[in-house]
Every structure is written in structure tokens, then in C-alpha cells.
Amino acid sequence: MPKITKRAVAALKPKDTSYFVWDSLVVGFAVRVMPSGTKTFQVQYRKGARTRRASLGRFGVVSVEQARDQAREMLGQVAGGSDPVEQIALERIAPTVSDLCDRFLDVHVAVHVKPSTAKDYSSTIRRMIRPALGMFKVTDVLRKDIANLHYRHRDTPIQANRMLSVLSKMFNLAELWGLRPDGTNPCRHVPKYKENKLERYLTAAEIQHLGQVLKRCEDDGSETPHVIAAFRLLLLTGCRLGEIQTAKWEYVTERGLELPDSKVGKRCVPLPAAARAVLDGLPRTAGNPFIIEGKLPDTHITDMQRPWRRIRELAGLEDVRIHDLRHTYASIAVSGGMPIQMVGRLLGHTQLQTTLRYAHLADDPVRAAAEENSTAIFASLGASKPKNHLRVIK
């Protein structure tokens, strides 16, 4: 076997079939001559019972020295236990982030996620993830790529954070499916933006005024009895809109409203006497299983936003969202001294952290009790009424 040199390769002539000329300096390094006259550098080695071979480039494009150095490097990897040719083959067929998105939606989201959440995931992937990362190989995505994409959406921090959560879940599954090594999720340590969530609580006066508007709409027929009942039930139970909107009469039992498949799975919502009175007053259409009936036969109301906009405008509550009725239910419970854990159970929270957003409201009855107690003690001391220490700044 001669040493492969530029002059020796240039002198090689094509034959009827391809043939190899092996290097005497690096065992496994060769030049292959095709019948067409094309000459390519090759590296070959054995891995177990298999013979591996890879092209290192065409003669004239890659120099002999460059090809020999590359062959040495690959053969060194083989000596260390690696299989570089197999790795190259895997990289060629490695899935892209777009492929991962498809598998995530088909295998995980379609099976494990509620339809409303699945819709949000699909939208996030379509609008934010595929355009930016779709062509990347799953194995090539780095933390800086995720951080840059997250930063690009900094003007919409809530959406940016939701996107980061979806990406993190996707790359966790990529590890589970063997598409990335364990512990390489590129979303790790990318900090989320602070979210200034607006939580609106109705005051007692606002609740009373809303009740009057609901009664007026009920009396004059401007809204259907089922629309009116839906908003009353939301305030009286603290349920999510979808839970009331899709509830069926068969869910109503002595225990309460037994939801077979809520956002957090199966749960039973207590139905106090006031809520049951609302249910008892509702007209029912034979054959329609839903409590909040829609206009079409055997359906529930699908759009509660438009009637809510009409009602809140009449009540002067334009800044109140439907979900704020749930916040109001929770705020009244916490302010009334109910333990935060019990409030979480009433709301169907699976994590205490979710309920702790209302924890500061528990200070109101404590402050009131402290004020009442100190006033009584102060009076017993025989001192004059305490002065108001608040300064008026003009």
C-alpha cells in the first residue's frame, strides 16, 4: 500500500468498476476511484461486527492532508469507543423542531390536554415556535436560541412565558423520546418575565348592583334565563366558565355538581342552597342534557362573552371580566376568614401556590380585629379617643 499523495492520486486512472487505494501511513484511510473518474477520500473501520465507511470529500476540493487529518480524528474517536459514521447518519435523519412540534401535538397534546388548552398550544406553536425554530435540528437547539426567542417577545410577557412553558414541555418529551440526551433541555435557567396579572374583585355594592341588572334583564327578557343563571352560578360557586357552560343536569347530585372532567380532572363542586334555587328556577327542554341551554337543540351556550359585555355595560362594570366573578368568590371567602387551603379546594386548585394569590386578602379581617381589640383595650385604660395620625398633604 503506497502512501497517498497528491501526485499519486492525480495519476490514478478509472477502471470499469470502482476501486480503492489504501494509505500506508494511516490504516483505514483510502482514495476511491469511480468509473466516471471521480476520486473521493474515504475512511473505513470496523465497529463490532459491522464495517463502517464514510466519505471525507472529493479530491481537488479537499486536500490529501485535510482528508488524512480528518480520518485520523475519526479513527481516534473509534478507538475511544465512539462510532462517528453512525453519528453522522443519525444527524442526517435527526428530526427538526417542526417534526417535534407535530409529534408533541399528536402524541401528547391530543391525549393528555384539554381541548381549550390544546387550542392555545397549537396557536403558540403556529405563531411563535415554528417560524423561529422549525428548521433547527432538535439536537442543535441551544439555550441561547431559546433565550433570544423569549427576549424577542418581551413586549408581550405573558405570551412569551406561555411559549417558554410549551417549549420546555416539548424538550422534556424530546429527552423522554430519545431525541436529546437527558438533562439537556435548553429552556432550563431561562428566566420568565414578571407578569402583572390584573385581578379585579367586585365590592359588595358592585355585586348588589350587578344582581339588580341581572334581575332587570331577566324580567324584561333582554337576556335568556340560562344566560342569567350562568352568571349567578359563577358568582355562587366560583366555578370556571367552561365548567358551568358545559355542565349537564346529570352532574347535579346530593353531593353537589359532580364534574367528571374539569380542568383538573374529576371534582365535585358544592352547591349551596342559593345555587340550587337558581337551578330549580331554570326552564328545561326535554332531551337537552345541558343546564345552560343554547339556541340549537341539545346544545349549550357557546358564546358567553357577548351577553356579558351587554350586562356589564348596563351595570357600569366595563373593566370586569367573566373570570373576575371567580376571583370575587375567592376574595370573599378569604376575606371572611376561610383557611386558604379550603379556598383552594373550593376553587379546584391542584397547587397551593395558585391559591396563595388571594392570601393578602386574609389580612383585612385580621386588621379589623386588631383595630377592634386595641380600641377596647384603649378604652379600658381610661384614655381619650386616639387621634387620627394620618396627615393631609395639600
From TrEMBL:
Domain Core-binding (CB): 95-175
Keywords per UniProt: DNA integration, DNA recombination, DNA-binding
Pfam families per UniProt: Arm-DNA-bind_3, Phage_int_SAM_3, Phage_integrase
GO molecular function, one term: DNA binding
Domain Tyr recombinase: 197-371
Domain of life: Bacteria
InterPro entries named among the record's database cross-references: CB (IPR044068), DNA_brk_join_enz (IPR011010), Integrase-like_cat_sf (IPR013762), Integrase_catalytic (IPR002104), Integrase_DNA-bd_sf (IPR038488), Integrase_DNA_bind_dom (IPR025166), Integrase_recombinase_N (IPR010998), Integrase_SAM-like_N (IPR004107)
Gene Ontology biological process terms from the UniProt entry: DNA integration; DNA recombination
PANTHER family referenced in this protein's UniProt entry, alphabetically: PROPHAGE INTEGRASE (PTHR30629), PROPHAGE INTEGRASE INTS-RELATED (PTHR30629:SF2)
Family under the similarity heading: Belongs to the 'phage' integrase family.
Name the record gives this protein: Tyrosine recombinase XerD
Gene: xerD_1
